[in-house]
Amino acid sequence: MNPLLNASHLFTWPVRVYYEDTDSGGVVYYANYLRFLERARTEWLRAKGFEQTHLMTYHHVIFVVRKVQIDYLSPARFNDTLSITVQVDAVSRTTIEFVQRVVGERECARARVKVACVDAVTFRPARIPNELVQTMESCQNGH
Amino acid sequence: MNPLLNASHLFTWPVRVYYEDTDSGGVVYYANYLRFLERARTEWLRAKGFEQTHLMTYHHVIFVVRKVQIDYLSPARFNDTLSITVQVDAVSRTTIEFVQRVVGERECARARVKVACVDAVTFRPARIPNELVQTMESCQNGH
Amino acid sequence: MNPLLNASHLFTWPVRVYYEDTDSGGVVYYANYLRFLERARTEWLRAKGFEQTHLMTYHHVIFVVRKVQIDYLSPARFNDTLSITVQVDAVSRTTIEFVQRVVGERECARARVKVACVDAVTFRPARIPNELVQTMESCQNGH
Amino acid sequence: MNPLLNASHLFTWPVRVYYEDTDSGGVVYYANYLRFLERARTEWLRAKGFEQTHLMTYHHVIFVVRKVQIDYLSPARFNDTLSITVQVDAVSRTTIEFVQRVVGERECARARVKVACVDAVTFRPARIPNELVQTMESCQNGH
């Protein structure tokens, strides 16, 4: 495992860099890191037992991104294998704040992403389904 | 005007190549030409007086792509200005076939795109709205 | 002109939302706002008389994004016309900080983007070419 | 295994559909299937023992797409898991023709993709490295 990632409870999702992700500067295009971050959040949610299609159909909610802060530290390149981490930093009744990292041979990017639970049709804030809140709480307590 | 484009009735839409469109090979990523082609078809439709949001809301139809044949002739690069052409080649009750070209300093790509009119919800084939058929017919007759 | 944009010196670049920009939530995908922001910065640079291809070939520098902070305020949708603004907020010898907004019928997003000038090959920090610094200074002074 | 895929020698690469891949029509955006096809070709090449970065550095060649024919049969949607197949259909000294399929619950797309080996700098046709030709020949013979 990449020594840059040493937290034992960290959810990590691997991403391979394909041509589609790069630009003519020879590196991953800056907007595409946000796609990697979302893939990892989606897979983190799935690993916890939640499918977004299920949340949409049965709870009528979707998650939308409210805020992103991202620092680009070192460029990732074509064919690199990256580890995308997901860590819940704060939870409110309708929002989740994640801290995420993109790590290849070196740390490529570090981000803080605030996601809001909204009604799937009106896009108004909605309560995060209870089961998900409980799952996140038990994770933060280290269980 | 680009001498490669000499047909007087050809609809043409300009596209500037940004970093987002390129890959680390230094050229436009092959899938992105399909985005350019669609931008031009959308703007062709708009130039004829049809907004897709209107077709969706009032006619309950959307257009989906059924088939693409594309030849990549010469790579387009970062910062190039491209002309994307749109020409209707064949029309049926539910489909339109376009011939499209991507032209920079040289011809970059040539494509044939078959688009189908479908119900916006069920995705089943639907008749192309009459006004649009009439507009296309009058164009093909050179009016 | 959009009344949400009333500063007389603001550089503004129009962007049309196509299918390629949206996701199945029915709105513009969050990473794609970063593509819009970059198109506007590129066109701002061009409007000031600087082509990135020229900066690369003759000054051996490219601009890379170091940091993005973006707040998503209101979702943009298919077929919307957006205005992307560009405002220089701070300039150092090797970096430029932009404040940018994405405005449709409502304000969709607000961002702060820090861009660094780097050597086109080594990606090490490089001085921003003098002519560009002077151009930015004269703009900030309101000329 | 998906019963739609019953050939024993078929290389198959799994792709999960994320929001980034979809559009506001609720389905995978048509250009994005080309990204999936390329991911599978890249992984097929890797499975055969060839890294594109190695081919570039030591053989000075890259692969570029010359021609795509793709039929869209049934839309893939958010959260679907797709199988992308790769089959070599024809090989010349400088080109490879692939037949590829995108299969979810139903067959979503079928494509024929012609790829050319070119010099990494001049983009002129180049011979496919011998080891790769031999590997493909042994596969076609069913070994």
Characteristic terms for this protein:
Thiol Ester Dehydrase, Chain A, 143 residues, homotetramer
How would you describe this structure to a colleague?
4 copies of one chain form a homotetramer. The first copy, chain A, has 143 residues and is α+β, with helices and mostly antiparallel strands. The first copy, chain A, has one domain: Roll (Thiol Ester Dehydrase, Chain A). Chain A is 24% helix and 36% strand. Chain A has helices at 32-47, 52-59, 130-140, and strands spanning 11-16, 61-72, 81-91, 95-103, 107-119. The first copy, chain A, has a 5-stranded antiparallel β-sheet with strand order 1-3-4-5-2. Chains in contact: A-B, A-C, A-D, B-C, B-D, C-D. At the A-B interface, loops of A face loops of B. Strand 2 (61-72) of chain A pairs antiparallel with strand 2 of chain C.
Average pLDDT level of chain A: 92
Number of domains of chain A: 1
- Give the termini separation of chain A: 22 Å
Helix run count of chain A = 3
In short:
The structure is a homotetramer of 143-residue chains. By secondary structure, the first copy, chain A, is of the alpha+beta class. Chain A is built from three helices and five strands.
Task: Give the topology.
Four copies of one chain form a homotetramer.
Chain A lengths: L10 E6 L15 H16 L4 H8 L1 E12 L8 E11 L3 E9 L3 E13 L10 H11 L3
Antiparallel strand pairs in A: 1-3, 2-5, 3-4, 4-5
